[in-house]
């Protein structure tokens, strides 16, 4: 038969048990020290005297109970304290300082109440006190951080929902100020929407762009959707617009479209449509930024992708059916011919070929398509068809 016995008469548990019997008095004194020793507690209007007393009493009781050997390890009061202080907005440093004050108070009272026979146990008790204070304060700090992280996740989820609503519909009335407050953007100003497509590797485009724009004093909020990353940028002037475009260009690892400037976040849905179309105007597989309206012909074609594909096939079909190397050579030559104002000589100099080589390539395109480059109407059709083919990745 096992006989249960209490702590040794001169052991550290006796000292702790004596303090536990006076835990109410210790609680009152520790509350006073906490209020006097930290301005965060002294100035807090949310942390009432009753609440602070309850939290302190629960933690002292748990620590002293474990020191006395009456109870096991009970971190629930510390976890509750950490979450409560985080919820009330008290600094983490103030929370940890309160635990140090608790450890100091327990040690001081242990020194004054220990009997002569228990003096030898004080060394062990002191080590146990600070070990437990460290244990409980760590649990409280972890709970504090977890609460803040959870709150940040919830807040981020709410912002994402509001931003998604802003991009999907024209927001009006009282909902707009609520959304702009949550997103930390003004109701009026200068705004653009950026649309970055996800590359074939599936990596998130424009990595780190939010912090890079913030360094330029451009506030932005971003939303990751299937196949794209979308951002609403708040600008403080025309110079900021130019700087933002330059930063987007530096970070672009795929096609990025940017809308025209608009004055209110309420128009974000329309601006997103512009940004999507502008992004389609870039050549597939080629990183770069395209602003809406900067490329009129590709913009028109991007509005009707199916019709653009039919246009490319109807006009350039025989060229597109050639082997890849022949096709690419002819299309590149035609593209340069338009870029150099229809000058065979300029294209030849650019490619370091003889002028006759460029002439022969253009004649071959004319033969395959039945359209002469010297005829304005035919040249216009070739120009539109060439851009339509480029939009579809040719």
Q: Look at the structure and give the mean pLDDT.
A: 87
Please report the distance between the alpha carbons of the first and last residues.
Answer: 90 Å
What letter string, H or E per element, gives the SSE order? HHHHHHHHEHEEHEHEHHHHHH
Count every beta strand, where a strand is a DSSP E run of 2 or more residues. Answer: 5
Question: Beta-strand percentage?
Answer: 5-15%
User: In one word, what is the shape?
Assistant: elongated
The major sheet is characterized as: 5 strands, mixed
How many helices does DSSP assign?
17
Which runs of at least 5 residues are low in confidence (pLDDT < 50)?
A: 1-10
Global structural class: alpha+beta
Strand order of the largest sheet: 2-3-1-4-5
Question: What does this protein structure show overall?
Answer:
The protein is an alpha+beta fold. The protein has 17 helices and five strands. The chain has helices at 12-21, 23-37, 39-43, 49-67, 76-88, 92-113, 122-168, 175-183, 209-214, 238-251, 268-280, 296-303, 305-320, 324-339, 344-351, 355-369, 376-391; strands at residues 190-197, 219-225, 228-235, 255-258, 288-291. Strands 2-3-1-4-5 form a five-stranded mixed β-sheet, with helices on both faces. β4, α11 and β5 form a beta-alpha-beta unit. α1 packs antiparallel against α4. The radius of gyration is 36 Å and the shape is elongated.
